[in-house]
Every structure is written in C-alpha cells, then in structure tokens.
Amino acid sequence: TKIKNFHLKPIIFHQDFQKRNTQQLNIFDVKIAQLSLKEIVLAKKKLGLTNASFNGTNILIFKTNTKPQAKKDDAVKTAIDIQEVISTNATLKIVNPNQQDFLNTGLFGVNVKKYIYDNGKANAPIPFLYENFDVKGQSVALNTGDQKINIAAYALNDSSGEFRKISLKPAIQSPQKTTADMNIERIHYSINDWKFIEKKLKLDVRNVLIEEANGKILAKKKTSIKKTNNTYDGLEFPLLIKNVEVKNSNLTYDQGQQPLTFKHLNAQFSNIEMNESTSKKGIPFKKGDYKIQSK
After folding, report:
1. Rounded Cα–Cα distance for residues 70 and 52 (Å)
2. Is 74 exposed, middle or buried (0-12, 13-18, 19+ CB in 10 A)?
3. Is the pTM of this model over 0.85?
4. Position 19 pLDDT exceeds 80
5. Residue 151, SS3 per DSSP
6. Other CB atoms within 10 A of residue 25 CB
7. 65-74, 87-96, 179-188, 197-206: which has the minimum mean pLDDT?
8. Are 237 and 231 a contacting pair, CB within 8 Å?
9. Cβ neighbours, 10 Å, residue 124
10. Which residue has the higher pLDDT, 221 or 208?
11. Residue 196 DSSP label
C-alpha cells in the first residue's frame, strides 16, 4: 500500500486557536511525501502496521497555553502497533504560543524495530513501548527560554548517543539564571539502563565524553540564590554516572567576581552519584574519584 502527498492540516490558524476555549494542548500540521505499508490491520480499538516507510515527512507542531490535565485510564481509545518503522528525510518544528520557535531541525532519519502505543500506557511519561531505535540527523536549533542551543549533527540509539559541534548561547541576560556561552566539538555518551519508575526517570550512565569545550559558564549571582532546597521531582534516585571525561577544553566559571579559568583542561571524574541527600546541596552530586590537569 502506497500513499503520496498526505497532509494532515489544521482547519484554523494558530493565532485563532489560542483565542478559543479548548483543552487541546497542541495543533499538528503534518505532510508526508510518500508513505508505504506492507500490511494494515484494522480491528476494534486496534491499528496494526507492518514495514511502515515514510519519506519526506514534515511535522509542524504549534504549542498552546493549555495546561496538561491528568489523563483518565481510558483516555486512549485505540492501540497502535507498528513493526519495522523507517522514516527518511524528515523535519520537525515546534512553535511556542508566542510564535517563537522552540525546536527546529534539519533533515533526519529514524529506524524503529517496534512501536506500540496503547491505553495501558496512557498515563506514563512515555506513553508507548519501543525496541531498538536509531535516529540520525543534522542541524538542530533549540530555544529553552534561557538558553539557545544549536547542534550541527547527531546520532542516537537506545544505548548511546553523539552530538557534534554544539553551540550554547544565553537567550537572556539575568543574574537569577545560570547560562552557558560556549562551543563544544563533541559529546558522546553511553548508558547501562534508563526507565521510568512511577513517572520518575531512573538513569544509569556508563560514560560521558566531552571534547573541546571552549567558553564560559555564567553563574547566577550569590545574592540571587535562594536558600531553599533544590527539587528533582522527575528523577528516581540514585542517578549514577560511572565515568565523565573532559578533553582539550578551555572553560571559565564566572560568578561576577574573580572568574575561575581552566586552560588546556583535561579531567576525569568517576562514580558520580546524585541521591536524596546530595540533591539538597548546592552541588547536588556525591563526589567520586577525579583527576584534573590544567594550565
């Protein structure tokens, strides 16, 4: 089965949608140049697809000001089961309610062995199951509100990932915010395991490598730091990082007075842990072994 020039189009503009009293969180505008399927299974409350191939998919998502509400257990009416998904030449753009871009990507490709979405996972942080995914792409621009992030290229799978030529620039200038102004040649990570437990992320990281990070960390001023405990409600403790290595970097930590500078920095950190106790401290990690070389 082949479908060409598919278009899921909103019937009203984003600006008009914002004015309406609606509970919808997002508006979708999706174009697919070509979609091919080996097999389609339609049954009661179930959609099954086999060997789904998407080429030239352009996804545009408009975010609204609607606040997420708790989902009922029966909120998802249809289960979706897709075997062997391949998407090539895709793009994704997400626009904030103020019309500013939140995320904008260049072309990327996705390969997923299995994707299952059903009502049993409707309330989970990730409401679907998957097996063996690979994502590769170029050019990502992200604006978090505090930080502008640009990535030239990336490759991700379910056990590791790599980002190349990362640029971080402050989106705002505020003594109440910690931001970064730097360029990083490469970041690579590998993980032992990640999963959600009672809607909290359980993360066990094996290795993190940061190469050629050059720039500044602009820390919020001490007078702006409230004496309250930090909260990490979305994390399941302990969070573990076995090894972190920083290579050939030049970094400055600037809090307004006597900036701390590391030139030709090479550093290794091991057995880093964040737990219930350390999360209440200014530096929320338990220090393991470390070695720092700098000029």
Report:
1. 32
2. exposed
3. no
4. no
5. strand
6. 13
7. 65-74
8. no
9. 13
10. 208
11. E
